[in-house]
């Protein structure tokens, strides 16, 4: 499949909102192996060659023209893993120059021997809010199993996770829904750490059985109070982002977690492979139109401000 840039959606919106999941990268200066020669196998949107270009605040300003968020949270962009603090230093300098992003979620490999030093290095930056790490997971639902090395069950990985609270850091989790039973145990064992589930739990299988399994997994995770969800990453390979596909999933997510634990997130520029920024924001706004004005404001702004500690 070859992705082409989706046509922009005509959408006017001037309410304040926060984008809790854009990425910035500069391929001319910094190392991102997945964008500079390596290929991610089975990338969920198929061909991602269109992402092999710089994406900086000026590019984001172009994509959000007329819809600009009041604050943004940069999520680590898979900078080469040698020294992940280098990415935080670069993004912090970017923010000083351009006013974006407001806050940073960096990377740490939680089962690495130097995790304490890496977390301390990140913590030296005032914009730092948390860590994203992609633990070992199962690629397919039918292969899901517990106890893999590097997974959320791994005691060495959990020792790294236990250090987040000491630094006042939250944790961004990207994992398929069939591994969220591990996440439920994790947050129960570490109640002082806020976990933020990325990309709506990755409900890629929209068959009735796939959605039923996703709902069960999300409901189990939602029983734990220290979990929030970013409504993002809902594109499907080979087809444009539509409200018909995604509004029901967004509403299910909010119904499961509540209007005080979900937030808007664009996943730009990655989701530019499936939709314009306006399309994604318009779909979210349509989905939350059934809620009260105060709940809509929370979903668009206040929840992300609280969870990522984005003081005015």
TrEMBL record:
<feature type="domain" description="Amidohydrolase-related">
    <location>
        <begin position="18"/>
        <end position="310"/>
    </location>
</feature>
<dbReference type="InterPro" id="IPR032466">
    <property type="entry name" value="Metal_Hydrolase"/>
</dbReference>
<dbReference type="GO" id="GO:0016787">
    <property type="term" value="F:hydrolase activity"/>
</dbReference>
<dbReference type="InterPro" id="IPR006680">
    <property type="entry name" value="Amidohydro-rel"/>
</dbReference>
<protein>
    <submittedName>
        <fullName>Putative TIM-barrel fold metal-dependent hydrolase</fullName>
    </submittedName>
</protein>
<keyword id="KW-0378">Hydrolase</keyword>
<dbReference type="Pfam" id="PF04909">
    <property type="entry name" value="Amidohydro_2"/>
</dbReference>
<comment type="similarity">
    <text>Belongs to the metallo-dependent hydrolases superfamily.</text>
</comment>
<feature type="region of interest" description="Disordered">
    <location>
        <begin position="134"/>
        <end position="154"/>
    </location>
</feature>
<dbReference type="InterPro" id="IPR052350">
    <property type="entry name" value="Metallo-dep_Lactonases"/>
</dbReference>
